[in-house]
Amino acid sequence: NYAFLCTILSFYSSFATPSIYNKGQDITSIAKEIIDMREPVTDSSGMVIGWIKYYEIPLDKVESGQFTVSARDYYPPNNTFYDNLYINVE
């Protein structure tokens, strides 16, 4: 069984690759991007400005609790942005 996680990353995020954590533990290496489901994000002129990326995470490798996705801003001052959610794994 798998959990699916969707992220939206702009080109301003470093390499447009997020880091994914479960209860503070880095699980990025077990989160597999589903490449054929990747979708572009466009501005009002149709220019691609980012990507919606989908990841599958094996449920037997994670626990219920806080999941955090983070990405660094590509440009100085290279801020890191976080999004947190709670997932109940059953």
Number of helices: 0
The overall strand count is: 8
Q: Helical amount among residues, as a percent range?
A: under 10%
Tell me the distance between the termini.
Answer: 10 Å
Helix-strand category: mainly beta
Q: How confident overall, as mean pLDDT?
A: 85
Radius of gyration: 14 Å
* SSE sequence, one letter per element: EEEEEEEE
**How would the global form be characterised?**
globular
Brief characterization of the structure:
This protein is an all-beta fold.
Structural overview:
The protein is mainly β and 90 residues long. The chain contains no helices and eight strands. A hairpin with a 5-residue loop joins strand 5 (39-42) and strand 6. The chain is globular, with a radius of gyration of 14 Å. The termini are close together.
Characteristics of this structure?
single chain; 90 residues; mainly beta; 4-stranded antiparallel sheet; 0% helix; 53% strand; globular
Topology of helices and strands:
Elements: E1 2-10, E2 19-22, E3 25-26, E4 32-33, E5 39-42, E6 48-58, E7 65-72, E8 80-87
Antiparallel strand pairs: 1-6, 2-3, 2-7, 4-6, 5-6, 7-8
